[in-house]
């Protein structure tokens, strides 16, 4: 229990919890080219924060519900052939703007909006850690349960149908997992950087992986290492922790790119 008395230890534990859930999910984001999809879902979570504060509900619940609704909306539009890159961009930025306006209109509520945009990992408490690791456990459970089916659906809808896999169901499972990751990560890296934590470790791991399972494991290691290194660097140099974690992940990507070419 002494470990949890240090805010740096709590930050590192929280960051590891987010990374271990975001990294394998990020592999599917890379494979399915869902970067814009994840950004739109993450940006919408700010509106969830506003609604949660309005109705005096947990911020985690509000962020997850709105993120899930946005993800389902985009999935529906995509199924109808309407969700082009332009439509996804409009949805992402509009959701963020509406959320920011909604937060500013809240009566008698003063919040640090920067903390929700870029994270405030150094302020996490034991309750936050429990929520983060609980969400991470659910995400990892979903991915482990449906791993083979998700991979089959990722390869193509025709192959999925031939294998007896419903691609819509697998897309729904990915959507739910993404909403959970967004909700637990908003306190760690913020709505603007969640997409980076999903994408960068997976993109880095892709260069060194021979199998999907290896890519997921390597991405998790990179994510956890980036979280720990980011927390340490932010403490030493007094930089914002969430962005520093993403910078550490980006540095790993750059190093891996140079090493792979050498």
Structure explained in plain terms:
By secondary structure, the chain is mostly helical. 79% of the residues lie in helices and 0% in strands. The chain is globular and about 55 Å long.
| Helix content, binned percent | over 70%
- The sequence of SSEs as H and E is HHHHHHHHHHHH
Termini Cα gap: 46 Å
Strand content: under 5%
Largest sheet: none
Name the structural class. Answer: mainly alpha
Mean pLDDT: 87
Uncertain segments: none
Helix count from the secondary structure assignment: 12
Which word captures the global form? globular
**Total count of strands:** 0
What is the rounded Rg?
18 Å
Quick structural overview:
The protein has 262 residues and is mainly α. The chain is built from 12 helices and no strands. The protein is 79% helix and 0% strand.
Topology at a glance:
Elements lengths: L6 H25 L3 H20 L4 H21 L5 H20 L8 H6 L7 H20 L1 H9 L1 H6 L4 H19 L8 H13 L5 H26 L3 H21 L1
Helix pairs in contact: 1-6, 1-9, 1-10, 1-11, 2-3, 2-4, 2-9, 2-10, 3-9, 6-9, 7-9, 10-11, 10-12, 11-12
Descriptors for this entry?
mainly alpha; 262 residues; 79% helix
